[in-house]
Amino acid sequence: MGVDPANPAAAARLRQPKQAPREEMTIEEVRAVIRTAKQFDRAAGVALRLAAVAGLRRSGQRSKPDVRVALTKTANRRHVRLDAETLAEIDALRQVREAVSPYLFSLHDGPPNPDRIGWWWTRIRKAAGIDLKWRLHDLRQWTATAASFSNGHDIRTVVGRLGHANPAMPMRVYAHVVEGTDQAVADSLGRALDASSV
């Protein structure tokens, strides 16, 4: 009973203490960074709003003009539904950028350099006054958490929106969200029993 000594990696994992879940950005921080991005560059505002609303990775924002179709990290395409305000901002930016590039965030006729969005993030994060620990990828993680069970959305929908083929990985990453929701379910069931008791 114990760890197979033939697998030192498994033994090392068992000895490591369990890490606490990483914090998520607050809605105030997300709003502040998007508001600052709009002041910095209209395209930056749209790019960061897309990262938050659609959970897009930096590479997913390189696609040609229909940003409703995003590329996953395995180069598969996925359709992402967007809210009316995001669509309006995209259409307004598209009208301005069409003369320059068929790509929404590019300054030339080819796809934008993915470092452009990272460059925006670095400067905007500082100008917005949010904690410098936040990474661009944290907007995507905020999306997953904000769109999770705690707001009444099922895991399949959230996983599909983020472009994961298998819900197992996001379930591991966002287990703390599920645990919080589980308490809400327990409380709800308890209230149902209490209301019906004599």
Topology:
Blueprint: H1 8-15, H2 27-40, H3 42-53, E1 69-71, E2 77-79, H4 84-97, H5 114-128, H6 137-146, H7 155-162, H8 168-173, H9 175-196
Antiparallel strand pairs: 1-2
Please, could you describe this protein's structure?
Helices cover 55% and strands 3% of the residues. The chain is built from nine helices and two strands, in the order αααββαααααα. It has two domains: 23-140, Intergrase catalytic core (hpI Integrase, Chain A, Orthogonal Bundle), CATH 1.10.443.10; 147-198, no CATH class. A hairpin with a 5-residue loop joins strand 1 (69-71) and strand 2. Helix 2 (27-40) packs across helix 5, helix 3 packs antiparallel against helix 4 and helix 3 (42-53) crosses helix 6.
Largest sheet: 2 strands, antiparallel
- Cα distance spanning the termini: 50 Å
Kindly state the percentage of residues in helix. 55-70%
Structural category is mainly alpha
Q: Strands of the biggest beta sheet: in what spatial order?
A: 1-2
How much strand content do the residues show? under 5%
Q: The CATH topology of the largest domain is what?
A: hpI Integrase, Chain A
